[in-house]
Design brief:
Largest sheet: none
CATH topology: AhpD-like
Low-confidence stretches: none
Helix content: 55-70%
Protein name: Carboxymuconolactone decarboxylase family protein
Distance between the termini: 25 Å
Structural class: mainly alpha
Number of helices: 7
Domain Carboxymuconolactone decarboxylase-like: 14-95
CATH architecture: Up-down Bundle
Strand content: under 5%
CATH class: Mainly Alpha
Shape: globular
CATH superfamily: AhpD-like
Radius of gyration: 15 Å
Number of domains: 1
Number of strands: 0
Organism: Streptomyces omiyaensis
């Protein structure tokens, strides 16, 4: 499978991807734990069917020490016992923020209030930003049919 475009060869696409990537640096691990950030990226990528982002974020999470059990259970987080209540709230917010068209208000008050029990305003801002960013990357890669499987952890650091 080949990508439709070489995103790095296109001056326009390369500039957009560079700016999106730099926006992600605004979410330090001190605000939201790195493990939670990776879980959020993985769940949104699963929902959007983005193989490239799944390849990247599962490998990055594993390289950072995430267990294979937790990585395998992200898709079934509701039925899993391996995630904290805070992680579960972040995953619910991620799902609703990714599937905005599924509910007339986008993210339900219940999901927001649950997340707010675990995260302060700055952390919620980081989560909202992270969900928006990963959805943007997912859409670029899915539309481009960017193939998965060759990512090396830290490749774009």
């Amino acid at each position: 499978m080949d990508a439709r475009l070489d995103l790095f060869a296109s001056p326009t696409a390369a500039k957009v991807v560079k700016h999106l990537a730099s926006a992600g640096f605004g979410i330090p691990d001190s605000v939201i734990p790195h493990s939670t950030q990776e879980l959020v990226k993985i769940r949104a990528s699963q929902l959007n069917g983005c193989g490239f982002c799944l390849d990247m974020h599962t490998k990055d999470a594993a390289a950072a020490g995430e267990t294979s059990l937790r990585l395998h259970l992200v898709a079934a987080w509701r039925e899993s016992t391996v995630f904290t209540e805070a992680e579960r709230a972040a995953l619910e917010l991620t799902e609703q923020g990714t599937r905005l068209a599924d509910h007339h208000t986008g993210v339900t008050d219940e999901a927001w209030e649950n997340a707010a029990r675990h995260y302060d305003a700055e952390q919620l801002a980081a989560l909202v930003s992270l969900v928006a960013l990963i959805n943007a990357f997912n859409r670029i890669n899915v539309m481009n049919r960017t193939p998965a499987g060759d990512y090396v952890p830290g490749q774009f650091a």
